[in-house]
Amino acid sequence: EKSYGRLDLIFLLMIVIFAGSCFFLKLPVGIALLLSSVGGALAGGFGVPVKFMVEGTMSFLDTILVIACAMIFMKCIQYSGALDMLNRFFLRRFHNHKVILLLLLMLIIMFPGMITGSSTAAVISAGAIVCPILIAMGIPAEKAAAIIALGGMYGATAPPVNIAVMTIGGGVDIPYVGFGIPLLLLSVPLAIFSVLVLGLKDCKNMDYEQVKIQLQIRDDEKMSFVMLLPVFVLLALILLPSMLPNIVPSLSMTIVFMISALLCILTGKKFSVWAAIKEGVNSSLPVMGILMGVGMFIEIMTMTGVKGWLVVNCLALPDALIFVAIAVTIPLFGAISSLGAASVFGVPFLLALMSRDTIVVAAALASIASVGELMPPTALAGIFASKVAGLEQYTGVLKKCLPSALLIIAWSLLFIIFANPIASLLP
After folding, report:
1. Using an 8 Å Cβ cutoff, are 271 and 230 in contact?
2. Which residue of 33, 74, 136, 214 sits 20 to 30 Å from the alpha carbon of 314, by its own alpha carbon?
3. How far is Cα 327 from Cα 159, in angstroms, rounded to an integer?
4. Per-residue pLDDT, 404
5. What do you get for the CA distance between the two ends of the chain, in Å?
C-alpha cells in the first residue's frame, strides 16, 4: 500500500501529537503513542486501521508476559525479606571495606532491573531498601538518589532481560541471543565507576555504631540464607540450559520466574501471595502500556512508509553525522520515552550501521536509550529515585547523574565505532 501524504510531515505530526499528549495533556506514554499512531494513520490516508493497531500492540506480547512475571517475582522476594536480610548482612560484614560494600549495594540495586528490564522496578523495589543504608553511611541524599537512579538504569541495560534490545531486535527480526556479554561490558564497568565516584568519598567516615542503631542491626542476628534459594534457582534455570544443554531443559522466562516466585512462599517470611501478585502486575502496567503503544507506533510507521523513510535518511548520513545523531536524538527523544527512543530511532540507526556487528551495535544503542530515564520531564528513574530519597526537587539529582550519563553515551559510541573488533574478541 502507498501513503497519501508527505512522509516527513506524517512523522512530524506523529511526534508533535506524541509530545503534546505527554507534556501538555499529561497523558500516560502508552496513550500518547496510541493517539500519535491514530494521527499518523489518518494523515497517511488509512483512516483508523484497528486491525493493524491491534496487531501492533501484540508485537511485544512475549516481553510483556516476561515483565509481568518478573515483577511478581521481585515483589515476592521483597515481601519474603530476602533483600532486606542481604543488605543487613553486607553492611555488617563489609562496613570496614567501603569499596566492596558500595559495589555489593550497587549490585542489589541493579538486580531487579536485570531480571525485569525496568529501571523503575529497580528504583522502587531494591532502591527503596538500599537508599536509607546509603544515607546512613554518610552519603548525601542527592548522591544517594543519583546512585539509585543510575543503578536502575545499569540494571535495565545488563542481561538477562533488556527490553530496549528486544524492541530494537523486534524491528529488524534479530533474535534475543548473544547479547549477554556485550550488555555486561556496557553496564558493569560504568556501574562500578558511578557508585565509587558518587559514594566512596562521603562514606569513608561512616560510624558503624551509629548506623547499627539507625538501621536496627544486631551483631548477633542470624542470617537465613535459605531465603536466597529462589534467587539461586532463578540464576540456575537461566544459565544452566546454555551451559548444559543436554542435561538441563530450557524453559521460557515466564515459567522460570513463576517457579522462583513460588519458592519465595516456602523459604522466606509469610506474606500475602495475592497482594504480591496484584502489586507486581500493577507495577508493571506502565511499562506494558508503553510496549503496547510502541508496537502500535512502529506498525503505523511501517504501514505509512515513515519507517522506511527514516531508514533511507539514516543511510544517507555520513558516518560522522550518524554518530552525532545517535548521541543527540536518542537521549533527547528519551525525555518522552526511552523505549520509544529505542524503537523509533534504534531500528533505523541499526539498519544504517549494518556493516558493523549488529549484536554489539544494538546493545550499544539500547545503552544510549537508557539515558532517557534521566531526561526531564518524564525522567522515570531519576524522579522516582528522588522520591525514594525524600527529595522534592529532581534538579540536584540530575546534576549528580549528568557526568555518568555523558560517560554512558561516550562508552556506547565507542562500542558502535569498534563493533567489529569487539565482536571478534567475544566468544
Report:
1. no
2. 33
3. 23
4. 95
5. 43
Cα–Cα dist 241/379, whole Å: 37
Q: Would the pTM of this model clear 0.85, i.e. be above it?
A: no
**pLDDT at res. 219:** 60
State how far the Cα of 189 lies from the Cα of 306, in Å rounded to an integer: 37
- Pull the grid cell for residue 176: 534475543
In this prediction, residue 28 carries a pLDDT of 83
Cα–Cα distance, 344 to 171 (Å, whole number): 9
The three grid cell numbers given for residue 24, joined into one nine-digit string: 501538555
Residues of the chain predicted below pLDDT 50: 1-4
Q: Which of 234, 230, 286 is nearest to 79 (CA)?
A: 230
One-letter amino acid of 181: I
DSSP-assigned states of every residue in 78-145: HHHTHHHHHHHHHHHHHTT-HHHHHHHHHHHHHHHHHHHS-HHHHIIIIIHHHHHHHHHTT--HHHHH
Cell of 214: 539507625
